[in-house]
Structure formats: structure tokens, C-alpha cells
Amino acid sequence: xxxxxxxxxxxxxxxxxxxxxxxxxxxxxxxxxxxxxxxxxxxxxxxxxxxxxxxxxxxxxxxxxxxxxxxxxxxxxxxxxxxxxxxxxxxxxxxxxxxxxxxxxxxxxxxxxxxxxxxxxxxxxxxxxxxxxxxxxxxxxxxxxxxxxxxxxxxxxxxxxxxxxxxxxxxxxxxxxxxxxxxxxxxxxxxxxxxxxxxxxxxxxxxxxxxxxxxxxxxxxxxxxxxxxxxxxxxxxxxxxxxxxxxxxxxxxxxxxxxxxxxxxxxxxxxxxxxxxxxxxxxxxxxxxxxxxxxxxxxxxxxxxxxxxxxxxxxxxxxxxxxxxxxxxxxxxxxxxxxxxxxxxxxxxxxxxxxxxxxxxxxxxxxxxxxxxxxxxxxxxxxxxxxxxxxxxxxxxxxxxxxxxxxxxxxxxxxxxxxxxxxxxxxxxxxxxxxxxxxxxxxxxxxxxxxxxxxxxxxxxxxxxxxxxxxxxxxxxxxxxxxxxxxxxxxxxx
Length: 494
Ligand SMILES: [Fe+2]
Ligand SMILES: [Fe+2]
Description:
The strands form four sheets. Strands 3-13-14-15-17-16 form a six-stranded mixed beta sheet. A six-stranded mixed beta sheet has the order 12-11-10-9-18-19. It has three domains: 2-82; 88-112 and 230-493, Purple Acid Phosphatase, chain A, domain 2 (4-Layer Sandwich); 117-224, CATH 2.40.50.140. Residues 62-80 have low confidence and may be disordered. The chain is 28% helix and 22% strand. The chain is α/β, with parallel strands linked by helices. The structure holds fe (ii) ion (2 copies). Residues 286, 331-333, 377, 440 line the site of one fe (ii) ion.
């Protein structure tokens, strides 16, 4: 059947990756499912991935919901997100493997910022210099010159700068203001060119090649983002240990999904071979709903005491099996400073939990058996979605790819994401991770960018009144699971 699926797709000019083929194989009518999927695309991708399928299923479901006169329950999600058989077969019992966690990067205990003007200047200098260094590895930018000098030349040059403004003229041209330590220049991205369509945001560091005209306008020929090396192998642990990802549990909220959590907890304690292969659980922020996070939040809380919220979470985590080590970072609803990088939860709260929970800051880079995991709550997605028209809350992986391209978790300064001007910019992605996880947007997805496994880690909260007002449909109760041997990622539905 595998061969028949592949030849069916190749006859129609497309291919499918391993996970997508596994998905078709789990369907009652694999060829029918592949045919329906192809018809869902206006322009099928060259290689269909599991993410493409999930997107198409979600779109089809939304269309069905809209068409139905009586709103019906969506189809059983388990059918749409079945875990491939191969993922079930290749397991390693996690209880037999000793813990191996190293925190590689975390602000906790290292914050020095006081928020002075000098702090800001130093912070942006560090951002500029660090990302410019990455950019200089690109052959096109090896000879990049200072902006003040490039402005005086009318031959082809290259510059590196921090974007201080992006605007579109009435003729559709885009103009960037680019600044370095020597000066600033207006860069023209011609209307209709692919350059004008690039997702450039304020305060990111980019390279531009082109030449100055006699009016001092720099006409761009190419734009260069630091991005990641084109491909990267997944390091891979010896056995098939797994790590699960969660965020946005929002304990204490009226809309916390206790029944879905109970299903997860029962599965983790007494579940199948996949459950027994789970060695780590990374909780990427908004673990409780918090207090006073937004106006009239008290009306939406069942627990209106912050300690009671964390106590409830502590007892939920206590129920999980001992071999499941929890790594917990805060989000914007948690009880630490909102400015990023956020340190780990304070000791008074840590004391409520047992020793199976490890507390780190947001963001943090943690090595699990040598696999480098970059965990970030994802607040900056609010700023990405409002600054870049092609990005949306429903497709968090696209915003995550932009973060990797820009080598920065939260480039936009002065938006919804508060940023603390630390001596070094902790939000720069200086080391390339193997797994990159975010939460915050209450979506759920797994994917890949240049060899990095991407995870957006769902939520355990139903739609809130705020989300209803903004037409945001959460995707709750999904557990992304990544195999530390292969990097394969699946979504388990509860
Ligand atoms: Fe959240
Ligand atoms: Fe959040």
C-alpha cells in the first residue's frame, strides 16, 4: 500500500514525507484520503508533510462547520492525528534511563538590568554586534561596509544594520530605515519585487546588497537574514526516549479543561508503550492563569489565589509517574516579572512542587541527553502577527520560522512583548537548537525548519471570552511528542 500511495501521488506531480505516508496508512481508505487531500490544495506542495495534512484537515473542518446548519461536533480528532505505527513500535522504557539534563542558557540568577538609558544602548549594541557577526559569515556580506561609507559610494556595496522603521509608499515600494554605529540610510525595496514582500520587522538586524543613488537612497538588490545553515542533522540519542511538550495549562481558570487533563494523566500513568517512553515533559509557560493579568480576570477564575493555583498544578504534576521529569518555564500569566527574559518562578512557589520539577527561565536552552531544546513561551507572536500580514495565530510555525530566520525570539521592541535591557540580548538565537518549542497562541503544531524540529505546544484551556471576542479558536488537549533518537514529532490527542 505504501508504494501505491507514493505512485498515486507522484502521478499527480507531488511526493509525501515519511510521516505523511504513515498518516495515509492509518486511514481506512488511504488512496481516497490522499485524493481528498490533494483536492484540498489549490497548488499542492512539492513534498506533502504531516503539517500540510493537519492544516488541510483543519481547513476542511472549518468549512464543514460553516456549512452545517446545525453546528455539529468536529470529527473525532484521534482519527485525524493518529500516531504512526512505527512510532509505537520503536520505544525505549523511560524508567530505565538515567536523567540527563543540562541547562545551557537561562537568565535566572544572572539579571543585571536596571532599565537605565545606558542599559538600552548597551543592549541594542550587543544585539547588533552579535547578529552582524552571524551575517558576516554569508559570502555576500563578508565585505559589508559601514553605512556612513556605503552612502558615499555609487557602486555595488553591502551593509548590515538594525531596522528602525519599515513603511510602504503609495506606489507600493517599501522603505526601510537601516542604522549601524556610523549612521543610517533609507533602503528602497522596489514595488512588486520579492524583496518588498519579505517579512521585515522593526529592530531586526539584516544585511542588504545594492547601491546608493545620487539622492542618498540605497536601492536594494538582495536582502539577507542571518537564518540557519541550510541543513542540519538531528544529533539523536541512543534509544528512542521521548519528550512531551505542553503549555498554557491555565490552572485556576474556569475554562481549564480538567477532563482532558484527567485523560492525559491516566494515559501517562497507565498508558501504552508511547506513554512509557516519555522521559521528559517540558511546560512552556502560562502554567496557571495568574491574578490580575487582564482587566476583570477575577470573573473568569475558580482559584483567585496565586498560591492555590500553583498548589493545584503541583498536585496534578505529583500524580504523574516518577520517571517523567518536568521542566517548567514561565509565561506572561505566571508569577514572575513580565519583561523577557523572565527568570524561573520564585523560590516560594518552587517549594510547592516536588523534586521532579526543574524550574528554568523564559526562554531557556536545555540539553536533554545532548539534544538541544530551545523553549520560549512565545509572547512575541502577538507582535509578529500584528506586524506581518502573512502571519496568523492559527499558524504559529510560520512565526517560529521567522524567529529562526532572524535569529531572534522577539525582535520587535516596544510592542506587546516587554523586553528587559539586559547587558546581553538573551533573546538572540545564537546557538542553533535541535528542537524549538513555543506556546502562548493556544494552537498545536509540529514541523521543521532547516533540520530544526518545531513544536507549538497546544493548551489545556477551552475558549476564553477574550478569545471569543477576537475569533480565536484554541486547539486544546494535544500533546506534541518528539523522539530524541530520530527527531520525529507526533501529536497525541486527549
Ligand atoms: Fe496562554
Ligand atoms: Fe501566554
